[in-house]
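Look at one such:
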Amino acid sequence: MSISADTQELNSYINNKIDIESVASFKGNEHIIKLNFSFDINLIREALDEIKEKSEFKTGPSGFHALAMTKRPGHSVDDDKDLVGRYYTRVDESYQEISKDELVDESAFTELVDVFKGTYFETIHQELSARYPIGRVRILEKSSFNCNSWHRDPEPRIHIPIVTNPGALFIVNHHCTHLPADGSVYFTDTRGYHTALNGSDQPRTHLVAALAYPEYQP
């Protein structure tokens, strides 16, 4: 009995070697780039433990918890847009893009929230601000077995993983990778469609800084 072309094709796939190692490491592309400087991950975690004793995370959409690190001068964290801002998404089979929430002036978020002052996070904020136009900075905790919406932002982001696991992944357009929590700093071009997911039973925590460039116009 002859073997069909379809069967032969599938058999050729079955015999392929499966990569089960590199998925637990970082693999970048033009949308997710590991930058050429880093911070001390142990100092970051120690500072976060201290801050969590004084402040509570706010619950945001898509199952993440947020702690605002910057605010607008003269404003409190409660009245600032510290959790979400403008984003674009496609919600149904029409594939039509829509916008949600208000556009945030990222450049206005120049002041460190009091609980972060004098901590290692102040050093991080100073170092980032010396290099880039930094807007809102938040500590985002992603719950276990959870995924963000599929969307794009008006501006890109900086990510510094603080606590992670191999099941925590970041996807921009068609590229997916893991971001290890070793003090590395990552540029994520969230002007493209993206999501973050946590497929582990442990939470994932990142420092996320918006880059206050003008809104991307496709």
